[in-house]
From TrEMBL:
PANTHER family: 3-HYDROXY-3-METHYLGLUTARYL-COENZYME A REDUCTASE (PTHR10572:SF24). The keyword Nucleus does not apply. Its main location: endoplasmic reticulum. Residues 1-27 are annotated as: Disordered. NCBIfam families: HMG_CoA_R_NADP. It is a multi-pass membrane protein. It comes from Gossypium harknessii. Pfam families: HMG-CoA_red. GO terms for molecular function: hydroxymethylglutaryl-CoA reductase (NADPH) activity. Keywords: Endoplasmic reticulum, Glycoprotein, Isoprene biosynthesis, Membrane, NADP, Oxidoreductase, Transmembrane, Transmembrane helix. This is 3-hydroxy-3-methylglutaryl coenzyme A reductase.
Length: 560
């Protein structure tokens, strides 16, 4: 059997096991019978058919002899009772089996639908539908033995995703799901830890159907001297060199007097798409939205679902009969996707009354644009737009980085600017901003998928002070970070935010913590750019990677 499965199918009911497969060990209804199952089945089968045959013969004789059918002898009465008893047994035994296999098939077909559609909406619909099946099947599952529940999950009788709700114990649900998964796939999850994690903290918040957690080491780099404050930056990565290199960059920035940063803009966006019967009607709404005198009405609608979401503006784009409206708002210390989406829903409800011919196609029409490379974020910004700069002194360039301003300026021009232009880059005018962004994102509980636009960065270098020193800057228009909500509240991520002094909501000024986090991300990218570019300029790149990124272990012997 091919055990490689698509993840979404991994917890389906197991296919019929081959004869060599281990028997599930959970208790079954048949365990209650005093005789072996095959014996009782054979007994009742024989009884059913022999008494049915006997009664048919008696019926035929009575018709031939004109004896009334309701006049029965003692032996006929016994035969009728035996027929009823064996019928009840067979119905009970095979009937229940049929119903169970019918439900399992229905659940399987539902999963097939998910696979085909690959749509979040469908998945949500199924999640809402299927637990009610489980409710009917196992009314008191929490009191059953683990082994019995594992067996039911393997058979598909209990949907794996309903375990937390059914058991009321998150850790137990994870343990049972792991065991069922191992039996279905016949793969061991030994290396994936189970203990040491609070599964209750991720329920309905961060991850569905957990079976454990992946360990990612967190290194620290710093201090980063930024706007006269020092920060120790946690970085979660499995790529050797990244922390060490950023740390070297911090050292050079520190020795040169520190870096300075500015937040240019702060606004999360969501852009629904609506359709009209004609392009002119779509334009009518665009002009309505563009008109400054309508802004307050829109803002009143938008702002009513949150104390922190405050509408900043709406940018419209037309494609024929379709209108894309990019709403932008402040979101306090939250990254803000939930907030902005709720605000947009309010406005859409209002607009639907004003424009009854408006058809709402999607709350997100990709003009937002979330987690996809898009010029709109690069040009207009999304989340926090930040710029960070430093002047690195000649002696620091020489001592710490073993290079010079002139060498770095030329390399930056040829690699980060011209080279990226040749490659047709979109927001990728840098050496490795995404390495630093991803590592800080993972450590601090940000959404790693937003690394796509959060890593947009243009690195500029210029020789200053008679060409001796280096002015370096990074401009990052779409850093999407929050210090409250999502993964930021989990224990380890929260500890990393605390290390930076930006944990949770800012008490003094809503949004101050998340903006500071964006500045720290930009400052760290500045250090990463400086250090990597210097390593390339001085020919150290391969050497340092060989030192930090290649262990002496024979990796070919690890794993199969
Ligand atoms: P997101 O919009 O990033 O998905 P969530 O909606 O999950 O974030 O979390 C934000 C929640 O935190 C909201 O319910 C909001 O009211 C609350 N909150 C409390 N203080 C703040 C703050 N300073 N900034 C933003 N949100 C805050």
């Amino acid at each position: 059997m091919d055990v490689r499965r698509r993840p979404s199918k991994a917890l389906r009911p197991a296919p019929k096991e081959p004869s060599s497969a281990p028997e599930p060990t959970g208790a079954k209804a048949s365990d209650a019978l005093p005789l072996p199952l095959y014996f009782t089945n054979a007994l009742f089968f024989t009884l059913f058919f022999s008494v049915a045959y006997y009664l048919l013969l008696r019926w035929r004789d009575k018709i031939r002899n004109s004896v009334p059918l309701h006049v029965v002898t003692f032996s006929e009465l016994a035969a009728i009772l035996s027929l009823i008893a064996s019928f009840i047994y067979l119905l009970g035994f095979f009937g229940i089996d049929f119903v169970q296999s019918f439900i399992a098939r229905a659940s399987n077909e539902a999963w097939d639908l998910v696979d085909e559609e690959e749509g979040e909406d469908h998945r949500h619909r199924l999640m809402a539908f299927s637990p009610s099946i489980a409710d009917h099947i196992i009314p008191a599952v929490s009191s059953a033995e683990d082994e019995e529940i594992v067996d039911l999950v393997v058979k598909g009788t209990i949907p794996s995703y309903a375990l937390e709700e059914q058991l009321g114990d998150c850790k137990r649900a994870v343990r049972i799901r792991r065991e069922a998964l191992q039996r279905i796939t016949r793969r061991s999850l030994q290396g994936l830890p189970l203990d040491g994690f609070d599964y209750g903290s991720i329920l309905k918040q961060c991850c569905e159907m957990p079976v454990g957690y992946v360990q990612i080491p967190v290194g620290i780099a710093g201090p980063l001297l930024l706007d006269s404050f020092e920060y120790i930056v946690p970085m979660a990565t499995t790529e050797g060199c990244i922390v060490a290199s950023t740390n070297r960059g911090f050292k050079g920035i520190y020795a040169s007097g520190g870096a300075t940063s500015t937040i240019l803009r702060d606004g999360m966006t969501r852009a629904p798409v609506v359709r009209f019967p004609s392009a002119s009607r779509a334009c009518h709404l665009k002009f309505f939205l563009d008109n400054p005198s309508n802004f307050q009405t829109l803002a009143d609608e938008f702002n009513k679902s949150s104390n922190f979401a405050r509408l900043q503006g709406v940018q419209c784009s037309i494609a024929g009969k379709n209108l894309y409206m990019r709403f932008s708002c402040t979101t306090g210390d939250a990254m803000g996707m939930n907030m902005v989406s709720k605000g947009v829903e309010n406005v859409l409800a209002y607009l639907r009354n004003q424009y009854p011919d408006m058809d709402i196609i999607s709350i997100s029409g990709n003009f937002c644009s979330d987690k996809k490379p898009a010029a709109i974020n690069w040009i207009e910004g999304r989340g926090k737009s930040a710029v960070c700069e430093a002047v690195i002194k000649e002696e620091v360039l020489k001592k710490v980085f073993r290079t010079s301003a002139a060498t770095l300026v030329e390399l930056n021009m040829l690699k980060n600017l011209a080279g990226s232009a040749v490659a047709g880059a979109l927001g990728g005018f840098n050496a490795h901003a995404s390495n630093i962004v991803s590592a800080i994102f993972i450590a601090t509980g940000q959404d790693p998928a937003q690394n796509v636009e959060s890593s947009h960065c243009i690195t500029m270098m210029e020789a200053v002070n008679d060409g001796k020193d280096l002015h370096i800057s990074v401009t990052m228009p779409s850093i999407e970070v929050g210090t409250i909500g999502g993964g930021t509240q989990l224990a380890s991520q929260s500890a990393c935010l605390d290390l930076l002094g930006v944990k949770g909501a800012s008490k003094e000024l809503p949004g101050a913590n998340s903006r500071l986090l964006a500045k720290i991300v930009a400052g760290s990218v500045l250090a990463g750019e400086l250090s990597l570019m210097a390593a390339i300029a001085s020919g150290q790149l391969v050497q340092s990677h060989m030192k930090y990124n290649r262990s002496t272990k024979d990796v070919s012997k690890v794993g199969s």
